Amino acid sequence: MQIPLSGTEVEPSSDRAQQACSFIPDELMALKAMIECGSETQNTPRLLDYKEEKQDDTGLVPGGFIIWIVWEIVPGIRLGNEIGADEFWNLELDERRVIQRMLPGEYEKMVSTGYFPCFQRARNLVWDSANQRLYFVGFRECHKTEDPDRKWRPSLYAVYKLAKPPPECNWWAPTRDGDMRGWQWLWKLLLNQPFTLEPTSVFPQQCNPSQGWSAYHFDKLFSVLER
Predict the structure, then answer these.
(1) Longest Cα–Cα distance in the chain
(2) Distance CA 98, CA 155 (A)
């Protein structure tokens, strides 16, 4: 809903009406785009209904926009919040592996709709354990997908906090070669110590981000995790 500019809240309604404008939230555009992509790519909340109107003469900004959006609450638990992914790391080891395996494919399915959440974190992931489904949520602030965003890249494991790169690793740098040696992927239940990838045990070949994250690297990674 449109609200008056700061300092004009008590101005006459005729003055506030001059501020009226049209607006379509990014969230609504994203949810509509996801519906158009079809149920086969739906790993996001479904748009159930929406309504766009203008405020009447008693509104905060007469003639200004007011919009209602109703979307599906997807089943499952959110895997984190603004600062971390404790919910994810508290899951059983085998369940964490399933989620780590699913994330690349589900990410590419999500961005294929044309949008992805701003400030991506574990809070944008919901895990439905009963149905083994991973959802992306939180599109109130979102971006349109550009071509580079459509391709999965290994640094997104760190973005979503489903892996822990070492402090000295500049995983966010666009020039980084994709090497994930030394990253923590799981916690050994008995020793309560982090499991890390040794320098040559998984990645005798390095991944060039411009070529994508190949099946070779995923197979090597999870073959180690399953030992």
Answers:
(1) 71
(2) 18
Give the bridge partners for 78, in sequence order.
126
Residues 6+ apart with CB under 8 A from 101: 218, 222
Which residue's structure tokens are 């190949």? 214
Residue 170: which residues within 8 A CB-CB, separation 6 or more? 176
Tokens 């509104």 belong to residue: 59
At 68-80, the pLDDT tens digits run: 999 999 999 999 9
Q: Is 78 left (phi over 0), alpha (psi -120 to 50) or beta?
A: beta
Judge if pTM exceeds 0.90. no
Mark 23-49 as b/e (b = at least 16 C-beta within 10 Å). Answer: eebebbebbebbeeeeeeebbbbebee
How far is the CA of 49 from the CAs of 30, 64, 135, 140, 182, in angstroms?
Answer: 13, 21, 20, 16, 46
Q: Quick one: tokens of 221?
A: 């990674």
3-state secondary structure of 174: coil
Could you give the CA distance from residue 113 to residue 121 in angstroms, rounded to a whole number?
19
Strand partners, 195: 186
Amino acid symbol at 36: E
In tens, the pLDDT along 118-128 reads 888 999 999 99
What is the rounded CA–CA span in Å between residue 93 and residue 73?
Answer: 26
